[in-house]
Amino acid sequence: MKNQRRRLLKSIAASLFAPAAAWAQGPRAPVVKLAMIEGLSGGNANGGEAVFRNLVWAVERVNERGGVRLPGGARRLALERYDSKGQIEEALSALRSAIDDGAQFILQGNSSAVAAALIEAVNKHNEREPGRRVVFLNYSAVDPILTNEKCSFWHFRFDAHADMRMAALMEVLKDDKAVKSVYLLGQDYSFGQAVLREARRQLGVQRPDVRIVGDELHPLLRIKDFAPYATKIKASGADAVITGNFSNDLTLLVKAAREVGFDGKFYTFYGNALGAPAAIGDAGVGRVLAVADWLPNVATARSEDFYRAFRRRYPKPADDYVHMRMQLMIEALAQAIEQAGSVDAAAVAGALEQASVNLQGQRGFMRAADHQFQQQLVVGVMDRQGAPGVKFDVEGSGYGFRVIKTIQPAQAEMPTTCRMAHPA
Questions:
Q1: Theoretical Cys-Cys bridge with 40: which of 83, 100, 320, 410, CB 3.0 to 4.6 Å?
Q2: Would the CATH topology of 2-160+307-374 be identical to that of 163-292+376-412?
Q3: What secondary structure letter does DSSP report for 21?
Q4: Residues 352-363: pLDDT tens digits?
Q5: How would you write 250-286 as a 3-class SS string?
Q6: CA 159 to chain centre
């Protein structure tokens, strides 16, 4: 009875996000079930909810044009959400529930440690139960190992991995002659460790003259007061901080740095959203840099149309967190299902290996060798809204990011060590 009630509630929740047009097929028509497994409570709950809004918008777009076309008739996409609380065991339990609920595609990304566990669990499940195989779509777990040593036929990553992101930042830092010393700070788990490791390597190649005056890891999403870290950063004399921190670990860090009077730069992976610009304030103007697959101030008319459409869907400033790659991911999935002519996991995975998508001028394609999506990257620097190149701010903060570097897909691409095994 408890399981039946839980499934009923999930079904009702999923239906709330289906446009009325999709119900022209009738409420009992078969659907393609997508399960988002994400931390919706705990330290990164705001990140989980932000992802959910992106995915809802992407699913709505597919359903509004009639869903995915299949030989037996069109099917709408149905998105359901499962709270992993940001924990591996909870995520694995959610995976089992999602599969039992009939999910065919698993979506996750806000933790590389969780993603690694899900890849292993999906591999085992698909081998054990070939009649209920699933495909794992990863929108932001960027530990490079996931498409190298741990690469899997069933896993597809749509974000640039940490080494690719770091290389993009280094394209700016290598020419930033004001930076003579850096402090490396990251979260103590696989992703944070990978960021610092690659920062050390790429600094040695691109800027061997830069001194590393601090190199430190801290517990993930557990630090409430970053003042001790900020004090050490200021005392080190660092000209810049390089960090992959996200969510509260980034906003609390930059708040603390501002409060102790640190006036150096922040080279970040995620400094462009989830409260960070508002937390930094004027101290971040010209000093905070962020790398992304896309930024709202990318200067094309089609990009502006895309961003304005998202803001119409989610007008509250606090909901202003849009990622192009999540939209491209759902478009690639819809394309692959239609090309496969089936929702069979192996057939769709085979079609996803050849995916090439274009949305509002943003293009990307899947590299079959390791299932790493290839797309352009941009680096932006924080400035006041209204400054040249900063038409849009972030989350109503009054601050946005001006694009200062664009890295084309061929330049962003990196080699892989993947040795992928394909199913028979």
A1: 83
A2: yes
A3: G
A4: 999 999 999 999
A5: HHHHHHHHHHHCCCCEEEECCCCCCCHHHHHHHHHCC
A6: 6
Class of domain 163-292+376-412: alpha beta
What is the amino acid identity at position 16?
A: L
Report d(CA 155, CA 351) in Å as an integer.
13
CA 298/CA 310 separation, integer angstroms: 15
Adjacent-strand bridge partners of 217: 186
> Two tokens at 216?
């430190």
Q: What is the CATH number of domain 2-160+307-374?
A: 3.40.50.2300
Copy the structure tokens of residue 240.
Answer: 């810049």
Rounded CA Rg of the chain: 21
Beta bridge partners of 35: 80, 106
Report residue 363: phi and psi, to 5°: -115, 155
* Collapsed DSSP state (helix, strand, coil) of residue 192: helix
Measured over all CA atoms, what is the biggest interatomic distance in the chain, rounded to whole angstroms?
67
Helices 324-340 and 45-64, packing angle to 10 deg: 40
Query: What gap in Å lies between CA 402 and CA 388, rounded to an integer?
Result: 8
Helix H or strand E encompassing 218:
strand 211-218
Residue 68 gets which letter from DSSP?
B
Domain ranges of the chain: 2-160+307-374, 163-292+376-412
Torsion sign over Cα 306, 14, 43, 168: negative
pTM of the model: 0.91
Decide which of 302 and 279 is more confident.
302
pLDDT tier at 20, thresholds 50, 70, 90: very low
The secondary element (H helix, E strand) that includes residue 112 is helix 112-128
